Amino acid sequence: MNRGLRDLRLSVTDRCNFRCRYCMPAEIFGKDYPFLAEDKVLSFDEIERLVTIFVSLGVKKLRITGGEPLLRKDLPTLIKRLNAIPGVEDIALTTNGVLLPKSAAALAEAGMRRVTVSLDSLNDERFRLMNGNRSGVQAVLDGIEAASAAGMPVKINMVVQKGTNDQDIWPMAAYFRERGHILRFIEYMDVGNSNGWKWDHVFSSKQILQLLEEHLPLVPVEAHYVGEVASRYRYQDGSGEIGFISSVSDAFCSTCTRARISAEGKLYTCLFASKGYDLMELLRTDETDESIREAIASIWTNRNDRYSEERATRTQSPAKIEMSHIGG
Ligand code: SAM
Ligand code: SF4
Ligand code: SF4
């Protein structure tokens, strides 16, 4: 499909301090869940080596994710090392935000350019219901504030689930418009096998747009570049911008330039893949950088993933990797 390799999403841990129902439902990700042992997670040396190889194949942008990436010990040290790799143009973070007050300054200092904080509601009760009762809203708002104060632009990601938090769409938009943060609405996706996803739970971007326009008119904004995931709109009165990530209603597989590496070093060429390619095995044997590079190039060249484009016509759902392994 002639899709380049431009972005790399690195999951630095499979663990999380939240239990969002749509991602890591507590009844499945409980005390006995077999999270990865420390020696089964890519080390900083291994991540740095892999990123150098990916950059030689065209990657320019990195996104650090999880699980919850801020649970990874010494994350700023890793960011500093990745930032020093020639060819890395941008490093961003996706986080639930609650640990940002502790680490934002060190991350910014290390070279983290941008942060996306996930927040699904400004209503404490609903937010707790969605995150498995792990955090109230204020802790996340404090995280957003800390990242901003450290000089990192912050975007907000809101997953919208019909019947769960659709009443929060306008309050979220109004709140972040006032504070100058771009809010992006994410359609609830059928990632993994554990969240009980149904078409009925999806609140589409089109419905969100209609709802917002009852409050304020919006106009579409040109994409910054080919392959931009979010469709962007701005308020007609110039008071801000929002985005829509419409993986379900408006698939963007034809411009998908994103590779994903799980904490245990598996390469996934699609968010909905059943199978990853074991790069850790290559790293921990005597393979040279050149042979790992060739292996990655061959996997990428031969990929034909287009799950979202095929979703509506699929009769059976395949076994899929969990979101918490590859971080979105
Ligand atoms: N823990 C971090 C966080 O929540 O931002 C990073 C990892 S999380 C898996 C990355 C993003 O995926 C978050 O914005 C989260 O809301 C989103 N996400 C998780 N499960 C999802 C689903 N089923 N549908 C749509 N987005 C989802
Ligand atoms: Fe954790 Fe992020 Fe998944 Fe929520 S969405 S459970 S914060 S990894
Ligand atoms: Fe890329 Fe797979 Fe998402 Fe399509 S479904 S945009 S191929 S990750």
TrEMBL record:
One of its GO terms (molecular function) is S-adenosyl-L-methionine binding. Gene3D superfamilies: Aldolase class I. Keywords: 4Fe-4S, GTP-binding, Iron, Iron-sulfur, Lyase, Metal-binding, Molybdenum cofactor biosynthesis, Nucleotide-binding, S-adenosyl-L-methionine. It comes from Paenibacillus algorifonticola. Binds 2 [4Fe-4S] clusters. Binds 1 [4Fe-4S] cluster coordinated with 3 cysteines and an exchangeable S-adenosyl-L-methionine and 1 [4Fe-4S] cluster coordinated with 3 cysteines and the GTP-derived substrate. The gene is moaA. This is GTP 3',8-cyclase. Residues 1-236 form the Radical SAM core domain. It is an enzyme of class 4 (lyase). Residues 309-328 are annotated as: Disordered.
